[in-house]
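U., I forgot to send this yesterday:
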Amino acid sequence: MSFDSRTLETSEPDGDDLAPGEVLGRYQLTALLASGGMGQVWAARATGAGFSRMVALKVIRTEMSGDENYARMFIDEATLAASIRHPNVAEIYELGKHHDRLFMAMEWVDGDSMAGLMRHGMGDSLTPFDPRIAARIIADACAGLHAAHETVGPDGALLGVVHRDISPPNILISARGQAKVTDFGIAKARFQMHERTKTGEIKGKLAYVPPEQFENRPLDRRADVYAMGCVLYVATTGLRPFGNGASALSKILHNKYKRPRAFLPDYSPELEEIVVKALALEPNDRFATAEEMQLALEHWLVGSGKVTTATDVAKAVKERMSDEMRARNEALISQSRTLPHAMMSRLVADYDNNTPTAGSGLVAAPAALWRKTGPRSETAPGSHVLVEEVTRVKSSPNLTPSGSAERPVRASDATAVVQFVPEGADAEPQAVEPTLVKAAPQRRMWLGIALAVLAIVGVLVARWLLS
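Result:
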């Protein structure tokens, strides 16, 4: 379960014991995005080697960490959302625990929610989208919702997912115009661990709850279709079909609302019919699936006389996004960028960063061989080693031969040209051409060149065969 989206506010830390810079698991907190009664959402980056992707980290509040049922709901939300694979559903990356605190790493969307893009100022008034833009957003959201409804469990059977909280705050729209359904915190599905909804308990936002839920009738995917019809009504008119608050309940139960054309004469009759069918009182009279509603919207868009794509939605997002939200998103995007030299530094931290020397490509001789030039030294049974032109490094590993400055000993300090002389040979071995022992990086370089040549030959042969 997630915290109630109605209580979310972007704000400064509000008393919980988390702060920017702290690390949860492998994620470093960057900025508080939202805070609710049961948890917080932070922008965070993965620490360690690799690309530092920005994620949204949903975290349970300290005082809620001991609530076993809430922990089960949180785990249910993460496991359910992680099982859904669709570009119009916000992705879940990881579920983890840091000390006694559960957290969930999920996709950070560099845009805003539909509610945020429709709301201006601190009031409750909403500015509608152009009908085509709204239809494009809702059609894409329906595609993601249908994917959730079609999710199967380990036994291959449908999980029977019902989101139960489809609403403008839970439809995110990226800066590239892509809609994503999010927040499966109160979703219903098989195999869940937390307690089932109690009789008389209503979950979801009142203005988007279907009448059968108030009557304690079984819920299926058509409850979400009803909620999506409410969202379409709001997105195209700027008004909730049944209002909000206590007065809305009676209207929902009797299906009393004004059709859009009653106060918007230019409203498309075909689009109005889609709204009316989605908001039907009886589930059997609605679209049977979210995909069916999506196809109806796609058909209307095609017949509207103008092709509406994600690019058009992206333009609307850019125009409507508040300056504060835009500045925050740009700052987070900037933090997630990785410069090539920084990545190189991360991934090859074990390499010797000192200035290369002429002998840095040679293998270091054993410490026992660091001695002045001599005829031979019996350092190991069965062999003699003649060391030519090698100056022994002083006994302290942090001193140069002159003892003037401290630095770690380099491999090149012990580089030598060596000759191995079998035991029993003459004291003065025959002159042998010194052999340089190449280091592993040089072998890898030649191997890479060979592989590249083979790849080029393979491409040429493939082109010759195809021609």
